[in-house]
Amino acid sequence: MSQSAPLLAPPSLASLLAAGPVALFLDFDGTLVEIAARPDAIAVPAKLVSKLARLSDRLGGRLALVSGRSLEDLETHLGSLAVASAGSHGADRRWPDGSHLGGAPLSLAAETIAEVEDYARAQELIFETKSHGCALHYRGRPEAGESAEAFMRTIAAREGLAVKTGKCVVELVHEGADKGGAVRAFMEQPPFAGARPVFIGDDVTDEDGFAGCTQAGGFGVLVGDERETAAEFRLADVDAVYDWLEF
Ligand SMILES: O=P(O)(O)OC[C@H]1O[C@H](O[C@H]2O[C@H](CO)[C@@H](O)[C@H](O)[C@H]2O)[C@H](O)[C@@H](O)[C@@H]1O
């Protein structure tokens, strides 16, 4: 069996910028902040917000945060940061001034949300709502992950929804939203259009972002351990991401 070569660190940001404009797409959890026991327990490093704002200026506004969290949730951690961003796995896209790129995401039916919330309560899982879906977190009860995923898949099949999985999380979402879609949407518009896109992320849902950047002439950067990936490069952890970003 052939073994693929280990992924190397990406060329430095300075060298990429010397070759032409770069559009940078950054995942949030596991990339800009360390994974924590609960979604609301993350520690946002001091000065992250001002560093992101400066990075956006350095890139001529070609910086977008692309998160599985809702934009409202991101704002509780970052404040009203004036950079482009996409929440709910790319379904909710906004420009730095808060204006929408594309339509507002469609939320799930109230009955569906209530059904998942009841399940979370009964199974002692953490429930999270998003503008275009809802999630069950089982980091505190890993043994409940398999049945939680089966529960969500049953609802998805019945309601014509999709399931996304991630690090100790399973989510119900409308079909069609992924981080690759967010990359494509921003890359069609100035100031992103014509730049070389780079996506940095750690989770399975970031694979769509990696593929979107590769298709548009750029590349993905996997954060964390080696795995099967569409990324061309790798950085070991959040600290390595900060070093690469020159934070
Ligand atoms: O796309 P991202 O910005 O990386 O968001 C992915 C999910 O991140 C959050 O959950 C994850 O991080 C939590 C805090 O570290 C952790 O407790 C949880 O186990 C992880 O799955 C967020 O809560 C989700 O909505 C995002 O989809």
TrEMBL record:
What is the protein's name according to its record? Answer: Trehalose 6-phosphate phosphatase
Q: Which domain of life is it from?
A: Bacteria
SUPFAM superfamilies, per the entry: HAD-like
First-level EC class: hydrolase
Hydrolase as UniProt keyword: yes
Source organism phylogeny: Bacteria, Pseudomonadati, Pseudomonadota, Alphaproteobacteria, Sphingomonadales
**What EC numbers are recorded for this enzyme?**
3.1.3.12
Q: What keywords would UniProt list here? A: Hydrolase, Magnesium, Metal-binding
Q: Record's InterPro entries? A: HAD-like_sf, HAD-SF_hydro_IIB, HAD_sf, OTSB-like, Trehalose_PPase
Q: NCBIfam families recorded for this chain?
A: HAD-SF-IIB (TIGR01484), T6PP (TIGR00685)
Q: Which family does it belong to?
A: Belongs to the trehalose phosphatase family.
Q: Which cofactor does it need?
A: Mg(2+)
Q: Which reaction does it catalyse?
A: alpha,alpha-trehalose 6-phosphate + H2O = alpha,alpha-trehalose + phosphate
Which pathway or pathways does this protein act in?
Glycan biosynthesis; trehalose biosynthesis
The task this protein performs is described as: Removes the phosphate from trehalose 6-phosphate to produce free trehalose.
The GO terms this record gives for MF are: trehalose-phosphatase activity
